[in-house]
Structures are given as structure tokens and as C-alpha cells.
Design goal:
Length: 499
Amino acid sequence: MSLHNANLTCWNCPAIDLAGKVDFRACGQAVEKFQKSLGENSEVHIMAECKRRPELGIFDPMSITFEECPEWKETPFGYILKDMRVMILGIDGYLGWTLALWLGSIGCQVSGIDNYNRRDWVMERGAHSVIPIARMTDRLHAAREVLGIDINFRKMDIMDRSHLKEFLEEVKPEAIVHYAECPSAPYSMIDADHAILVQQNNVLGTLGLLFLMRDICPETSLLKLGTMGEYGTPLTGRPLFEGIFPADAVLHWHDQEWSLGGELTPRDPVSFYHVSKVQDTFNVYEACKYWWLHSYDIMQGVIYGVRTEQVAADPRLRTRLDIDEWFGTVMNRFVAQAVVGIPLTLYGAGEQLRGFIALEDAMQCMTRLICSPPEPGQYAVVNQMSGYYSLRELAETVTRVGRKEFHLPVKIQRVENPRVEADRHPFVPIYERLPKDFGFEPKVPPEEAIYNMFELLTQPEIKERIEQKKHLILPRTWWSGVKKQVESIEVLEEVEVPD
Ligand code: USQ
């Protein structure tokens, strides 16, 4: 079967040099449509050069496919540029470090920056990664020694544009993965200082990056992490399309109809952190429009898990895992709670529905997207999740695995919900593009990721690290600004755990 990106052409390739050789009207639209709009006898042709194969001279970028080009090689995730230069912003984080090793293992030349903000923010809250993580120098050393991966790392703040400019000029990345944001909703809701810090770091960091890309590497594809939480959970049950209304969506009002096709869908974020992601959406969307940047906005569901082959290869290569109220995502928190005997904390009714994805599956999606760069000017969106569940269902799954496989007396409790969110609502996420257009197949069911987490977190050293931070599990950050720890509403003693 042919790979999902076999028929893409140099038009999508980051090695192309389009400057001055392309009609502006070609950008942001399908090539076929553009050519048709010019008419058969048009004098306008899209011409380009290749940065990797200058011997081709000036040529029609639609004439060579990835499958035909010797610079693209086959991998299980699609064709990928040989030694593709991928820069990861936020390379020291939970996702960034995992992706660096993953991409290195399939032959990418990985570079990255980080200013250790995540380590600092977690420390500021008095918490720690319950999986101990090595210092960056030791991580880099271990990556070379154990996996033979050389990572070009610079300690740098994304806001330091002059140094980032130099690094971009030096590396000339062919894809940029942008993870350099503060990922926490509760952290952004602590007080004004934290809300401002999160929005400044996320929104202005991204905005500065867009200008640098315009000036240095406009052909590079940008993979920017958004969130499913940008959409909120509309009580009408309107489907959560992939960022943009599909061509056949229609607004019907006062006996008239308008097409919504191609417009951004409404956003209804659920914290000041989520608002920062919505602002990013607009900034990236505009940059693609003004400067022909190529971008994927990746609306990722709640992530969980600790395992990929590479991070499991050596204790020094492990990625972080947070379980405190600010930086721990719900599934990771549940497993940690189960390990130290705290009843799993369902906020409110526990009937909230969310999209989820395991760490390893998220890595697969990112790789497939890196392999299929968008067209010039294209702002594309994917909803990156492998399934959706109610929090109660997940708590039951954690309970089942914990009791059956690890003989732990796991219980579930309902606690006051410190957030402002509907805890009973319709939820119709559309997440078709990754499987349909990019060949994504989820490989890790929740049970398996939960099992792997239990295996690691029940190790005495890690269990002890969870015990040390037990007091940071019950939340105190209320969206209302109230200052108190949430109270338990009930412990669901006799919860039936279906097989
Ligand atoms: N929740 C509980 N119990 C807990 C922790 C959380 O019931 O102990 C509930 C929350 O009320 C919420 C849901 O679980 O309804 C998810 O909470 P979360 O803390 O796991 O995730 P969230 O704050 O939504 O943010 C996380 C990541 C963020 C990402 C987002 C994807 O931190 O970076 O953007 O997941 S999404 O949720 O789809 O927006």
C-alpha cells in the first residue's frame, strides 16, 4: 500500500526555495484549484529551486513526488527527508524530550532549545517530577551513549529572539515543533501574576517565533501544539470540527443560508491557559495568510503515559511525570493516587468527557505530520486524540488495572470541582484527519498505558517520591479565586469495576 505522503510534491517540501518564483495567489490553496483558476493558457507558472538538489536548477515543484525524490526515504510513518533537520522548542519537557529521542531514532537531526522553565515552575509550586529526570547534560550524554543520537541543544528562552535568530540561521530547520509553552490550566488560574506569565510566555513567545520564521525559514513547517480545550464543550452538542468548518457546513438563520466552509470554528476556552492557545491560533493563522508560512495547529487531547521504547532504554533517558494539581494531567494523577492509596479525585460529577491520547501515540502523530508538511500559506488543524472517555470511566479503568494486576486497594472519590466547567455535557469531537489523511493508527489502549505507568510508579524509589508530594494532590486553585483546599464529597466505596 502506498504511504500516506507518497504523492505529495516539492510544493509541500521544506527543502524548496520558492522566494520570488511563485505567484502569491498560489499560496494557501490547493494547487489544482489554483492552476484551474489561472486557465489553460495562463503564462503564470509556479517555479522553484531545491536547497538540497541545486543541480535541478529552476523547475516546476509539482513535477516530483516524495516517492520519486531520492531525498525522501521510506519509514513506517511515511516518507521522510533524509537526516531531516527538526528543531524542538521546549526540548526538556515531557513531550519535547520524548519526541527528541523518538525522532533521533528514525534518523532525524534533532536540535532544540529550552530554558528549564518547566522544571522551575514545578519547583516553585514545591512539587517535583515523580520520575526523577537527569540534568540536560546527562540526558544528552546518555542519548549519545545508549541510542547513538546526537542532539544539538542550546539553553535558551524562546523570548530571547536575537539568540533564537542565530540558532535558526545556524541550523536551518526543516520542521519546527513548538512545545515551548506553559501547559497548565490551574497554574494560569493561581493569580494575576501567573495568568500574565502564562499568556506572556505562550502568546508573545509564539508571536516572536512567527516573525523569525518569516525572515529566516518561511519554507519550514511549524508544528504548534494547541489543545482540544480551545473548543470548550458547547452545550448544544455542536461537533468539534478540526479547527475549521468543513466545506458543507451551513449557517441557517431567518430563512436564509450561508456557507461556513473554511472559516475558523468558534472557540470557548476553559482557563487563561486555554485562552493563550486560542490567541496563538489567531496569530499563527494570520502569519500563514500574510507570509505563506506552513503550519499545523495540533489540538491535542489530554495526554498520559510514561513509555516509549527510547525513554525506557535507560533511567537517564526517562521523561518527566508530574502528578501535582498544577502540572499533572488527570490520568497520570489517577495512577499516582492509586499507588499511594489516595482515592482517585473525580472533580464534581466526574461525568466530564475529554479526548485522550497516550504519549507514544502522540509521538506517532507528530512524526506523521512532520512527514507531510502543509502547503505554503496553509494553516491546517488536526484534532490529536485516540478516543474520548468520561473521567469516571477512566477512574474505573485505573481502579480495575490497579486492583487486578497490582493488588492495590484502589478507591474513587468525588471532590468539589475547583474549576468552572460543565461536568455533564454533550461532546462530539471530530478526529478523522490523522487516521484518514496521515495513516495514524492508535497503538496504545488506555489499559496498556495505565499498566506501564503502574509498573514504573510502584517501584519503591518512585513511590517514595509520590509519598513526598502527596499533600499537593488535592487542589487548592479555584477558578473563582477562593483560597481553600477542595473537600471530598463522597468516597465511592463499593464501586463496581466492570471487567
Ligand atoms: N480532573 C479531575 N480530577 C483530577 C484532575 C483533573 O476530575 O484530579 C478533570 C478536570 O476537571 C478536567 C479534566 O479532568 O475536566 C482534565 O483535566 P487535566 O488537568 O488532565 O487537563 P487540562 O487542565 O484540561 O489540561 C491538560 C493539559 C493541557 C492540555 C489539555 C488538553 O495540561 O496542556 O491542553 O489537557 S484538553 O483537556 O483537551 O484541553
